[in-house]
């Protein structure tokens, strides 16, 4: 049995493995794998939302570690930018998790949906963006912008989470001038730090389901390795297509959440759709 859940079924374990593998692949290419993992984890009998979030982070950290190493070996991203950015992101992630403990993420979801729509439109109508690296800043400004991106998106990951990798990729492409492939490589290093920051908050609270997390982590590692190799092989155009697809799904998912949390879904069901 896994982490004391005696009534967990073999089918659920298999679903966790499949979701973890697919999420690792998506995360390695553009981010957003949590959209698959979290709903599956919430299917485990007796699991709480906090346990699901913590266990999701544990699984993800295995995948992001694997994909970060794979990208580093094949793309050689500039660590002088990635590592300081990751350090700031880790601090931001811890701060976001602390705020999340007292402030519901639903407060921010409408803003996130609007931001994702803007990101989707920006990327769709600029087909040449991210094809090549043409840095927009130099010297100290370059590192300040990188640190700001890391801090803001790290805070978001600790606070809400979905789409963190996608936000990192588009920020590195649009605000800093990296190509999609190099942006994905750096994003994995930063995303590893944000996952670690969230885990630092969750671990003392005893929210982590170690057995489930290890199973999820193994699947994430396999998916992350394959995803990183696929992205390196296929290049910038492939990453851009996957990015647009994942952002579209994120918009739909968070949009439905906002709809339901504001009571609009229940009102529609009661008054219109019957």
From TrEMBL:
<feature type="transmembrane region" description="Helical">
    <location>
        <begin position="165"/>
        <end position="181"/>
    </location>
</feature>
<keyword id="KW-0813">Transport</keyword>
<feature type="transmembrane region" description="Helical">
    <location>
        <begin position="107"/>
        <end position="129"/>
    </location>
</feature>
<feature type="transmembrane region" description="Helical">
    <location>
        <begin position="141"/>
        <end position="159"/>
    </location>
</feature>
<feature type="transmembrane region" description="Helical">
    <location>
        <begin position="82"/>
        <end position="101"/>
    </location>
</feature>
<feature type="transmembrane region" description="Helical">
    <location>
        <begin position="238"/>
        <end position="256"/>
    </location>
</feature>
<feature type="transmembrane region" description="Helical">
    <location>
        <begin position="209"/>
        <end position="226"/>
    </location>
</feature>
<comment type="similarity">
    <text>Belongs to the 4-toluene sulfonate uptake permease (TSUP) (TC 2.A.102) family.</text>
</comment>
<protein>
    <recommendedName>
        <fullName>Probable membrane transporter protein</fullName>
    </recommendedName>
</protein>
<keyword id="KW-1133">Transmembrane helix</keyword>
<dbReference type="InterPro" id="IPR052017">
    <property type="entry name" value="TSUP"/>
</dbReference>
<keyword id="KW-0812">Transmembrane</keyword>
<dbReference type="Pfam" id="PF01925">
    <property type="entry name" value="TauE"/>
</dbReference>
<feature type="transmembrane region" description="Helical">
    <location>
        <begin position="12"/>
        <end position="30"/>
    </location>
</feature>
<keyword id="KW-0472">Membrane</keyword>
<dbReference type="InterPro" id="IPR002781">
    <property type="entry name" value="TM_pro_TauE-like"/>
</dbReference>
<keyword id="KW-1003">Cell membrane</keyword>
């Amino acid at each position: 049995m896994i982490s004391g859940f005696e009534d967990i079924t073999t089918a659920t374990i298999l679903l966790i493995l499949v979701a973890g593998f697919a999420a690792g692949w998506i995360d390695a290419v553009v981010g957003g794998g949590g959209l698959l993992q979290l709903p599956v984890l919430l299917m485990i009998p007796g699991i709480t939302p906090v346990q699901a979030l913590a266990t999701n982070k544990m699984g993800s950290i295995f995948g992001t570690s694997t994909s970060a190493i794979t990208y580093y070996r094949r793309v050689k991203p500039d660590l002088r930018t990635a590592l300081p950015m990751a350090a700031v992101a880790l601090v931001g992630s811890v701060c976001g998790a602390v705020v999340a403990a007292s402030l519901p993420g639903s407060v921010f979801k409408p803003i996130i949906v609007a931001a994702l729509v803007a990101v989707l439109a920006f990327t769709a109508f600029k087909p040449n963006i991210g094809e090549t690296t043409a840095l927009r800043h130099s010297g100290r400004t370059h590192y300040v912008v990188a640190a700001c991106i890391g801090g803001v998106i790290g805070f978001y990951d600790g606070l809400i989470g979905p789409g963190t990798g996608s936000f990192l990729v588009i920020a590195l492409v649009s605000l800093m001038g990296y190509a999609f492939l190099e942006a994905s490589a750096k994003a994995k290093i930063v995303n590893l730090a944000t996952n670690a920051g969230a885990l630092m908050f969750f671990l003392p609270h005893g929210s982590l389901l170690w057995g489930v997390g290890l199973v999820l982590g193994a699947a994430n590692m396999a998916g992350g390795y394959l995803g990183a190799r696929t992205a390196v092989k296929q290049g910038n155009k492939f990453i851009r297509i996957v990015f647009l697809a994942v952002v579209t799904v994120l918009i739909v998912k968070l949009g439905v959440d906002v709809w339901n949390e504001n009571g609009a879904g229940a009102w529609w069901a009661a008054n219109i759709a019957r």
